[in-house]
Amino acid sequence: MAFDRYIAICNPLRYASIMTTKTIVKLSCSAWGISLVLVAILLGLTIRLSRCRSVILNAYCDNASLFKLSCDDVSINNLYGLVFMAVLFGSSIGSILVTYLRIAIICWTKKSKELNNRALQTCASHLLVYMIMLGTGFVAIILHRFPDYPYLRKLASIQFHVVPANLNPIIYGMQTKTLRRKILQTFSKKVSST
């Protein structure tokens, strides 16, 4: 998505020639392919473990919860999980950082008010949704390392699935002038009535 935004803002006249169906298929296949390989290794490491417990102490069944059901040594699983998280989040954050820095440099050097407004409108919502998802995801993953806080971990894991999904339409909807006016009108009525 960041690459798409970069091409749309920095090379708008070449957008159709760069973002062809072939390019989109390549980007999608590489993203899915890398993710599937990483998850397949993760599942392979998890399947080999024997289970001596049967109660998952989380709101849903995730890989870290399955590790906790095993009496075997899970240090390799924990190590791979940390590497998996670092590679996945690092590449995601890195690619977004590089493309958004390039967009910022283009906006700064061109000093076009129209380009800056378009870039801000296009990138701010994506960045906000991404930061919310990243923040809730980090908290949920990190809390697996602290067994003393099971209720906080459950809350964080639920927030990872609920908060971004519910804020996403609101954040992207605020870009539409009619919808933004209606939302602001609704909130101003509720604030003035209390």
Short description:
By secondary structure, the protein is an all-alpha fold.
Helix and strand topology:
Elements: H1 2-10, H2 15-18, H3 21-47, H4 63-67, H5 75-110, H6 113-143, H7 150-173, H8 177-193
Order of H and E elements = HHHHHHHH
- Number of distinct helices: 8
Report how far the terminal alpha carbons are from each other.
40 Å
Structural class: mainly alpha
What does the overall shape look like?
A: flat
What does this structure look like?
- The protein is built from eight helices and no strands.
- The protein is flat, with a radius of gyration of 21 Å.
- The model has no long low-confidence stretch (mean pLDDT 82).
Question: What keyword list fits this structure?
Answer:
194 residues, mainly alpha, 79% helix, 0% strand
